[in-house]
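pls design
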């Protein structure tokens, strides 16, 4: 079976994707510098799928290390590139660090792939590129809006670089996957999202509140033009995001694509409000969420959810897991984290 390099493979989405790749039969090699993940994740992956992936720890921007890696790990068929910083608020405070890591690491890996003749690339993009959409559901032809954060801008810049590279090199093929709101954790409770400091995102904040690490969950804004007044997002189980990568990889490697650069939304196609997420959490776990509605958070888009037609038809992939499964699995992971940390 083909050998695949997964950058950022010990991270949240990367680790779940590694599991799905191994379970599909792919040979997986990870590069991660562990700036936002733990080495033990490799053992947890092995517990889930019976095989520990090969691991190389270094910063992708280290071009010498990357070239040495490709010399050693011959026959890599494709790269799935997750490695990046992802905290929107931090990117506003430290923009150059974000451009350096999120654009720099992509340049570094694309240069090394060119040198070593690896021509299949899957990139982690984000629904953030759509900004506040004019039309719902959002399909892939929706305009890219000016980024509202350096983080969002790095996703746009990366997509443009990849598109330019495909235009310039007729052997190179790429797929960008624009994730909506990945949440949840593997149902084993062994891998999940590692919180770094005070979480910005809804689910880690919610699970930490119920877990006693935070006092109260602030629901940002109760006066939006939505049925219950709170913002609506397309939450998707991280395992469904992971299986989308296997589908995208199969598409690239079988040559079964329409264009050498393709972009797909990765969502469920259904939006849920913040209060619906809280209600789902309470129903699926039996726990009560202490929350209060506060002012809107600047920059929040009222409603986003994906059109998934393209991904459903072309990747032959569909998100399967319900919101209740997402909240249940997120809580199981949080409880395990509390024991282990
Ligand atoms: P994560 O932080 O859990 O994983 C990223 C991994 O990359 C970490 O293990 C980190 O140690 C590693 N890394 C970062 N910079 C590196 C470098 N220079 N060299 C080597 N390793 C490096 O994040 P995640 O949630 O798994 O996100 C994965 C990708 O998906 C990112 O590109 C992110 O921007 C994108 N994305 C995430 C979300 C989300 O909500 N989680 C949504 C849309 C897009
Ligand atoms: C979801 C909803 C908040 C926290 C971000 C990035 C995006 C992508 C995914 C990487 C919103 C509300 C949140 C809280 C709340 N990441 N909320 N209380 O903002 O949709 O997307 O993560 O690419 O780029 O911007 O996700 O989880 O922060 O918020 O009420 O404590 O929950 O207002 O409606 P968001 P989120």
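designed seq:
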């Amino acid at each position: 079976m083909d050998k695949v390099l997964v950058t950022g493979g010990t991270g949240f989405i990367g680790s779940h994707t590694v599991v799905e790749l191994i379970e599909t039969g792919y040979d997986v090699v990870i590069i991660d510098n562990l700036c936002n993940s733990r080495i033990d994740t490799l053992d947890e992956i092995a517990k889930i799928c019976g095989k520990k992936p090969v691991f190389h720890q270094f910063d992708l921007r280290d071009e010498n290390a990357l070239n040495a890696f490709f010399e050693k790990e011959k026959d890599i068929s494709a790269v799935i590139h997750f490695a990046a910083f992802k905290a929107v608020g931090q990117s506003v405070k430290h923009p150059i660090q974000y451009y350096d890591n999120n654009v720099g690491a992509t340049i570094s890996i694309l240069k090394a792939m060119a040198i070593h003749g690896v021509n299949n690339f899957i990139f982690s993009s984000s629904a953030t590129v759509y900004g506040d959409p004019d039309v719902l559901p959002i399909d892939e032809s929706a305009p890219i809006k000016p980024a509202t954060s350096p983080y969002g801008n790095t996703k746009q810049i990366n997509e443009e670089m990849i598109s330019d590279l495909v235009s310039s090199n007729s052997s190179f093929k790429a797929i960008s996957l624009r994730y909506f709101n990945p949440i949840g954790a593997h149902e084993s409770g062994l891998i999940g999202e590692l919180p770094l400091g005070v979480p910005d995102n809804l689910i880690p904040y919610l699970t930490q509140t119920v877990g006693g690490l935070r006092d109260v969950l602030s629901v940002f804004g109760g006066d939006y033009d939505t049925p219950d007044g709170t913002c609506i997002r397309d939450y998707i189980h991280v395992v469904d995001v992971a299986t989308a990568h296997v589908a995208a990889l199969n598409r690239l490697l079988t040559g079964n694509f329409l264009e050498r650069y393709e972009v797909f939304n990765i969502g469920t196609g259904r939006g849920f409000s913040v209060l619906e997420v809280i209600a789902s959490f309470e129903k699926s776990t039996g726990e009560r969420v202490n929350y209060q509605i506060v002012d809107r958070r600047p920059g929040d888009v009222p409603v986003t959810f994906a059109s998934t037609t393209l991904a459903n038809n072309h990747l032959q992939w569909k998100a399967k897991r319900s919101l209740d499964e997402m909240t249940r699995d997120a809580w199981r992971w949080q409880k395990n984290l509390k024991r282990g940390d």
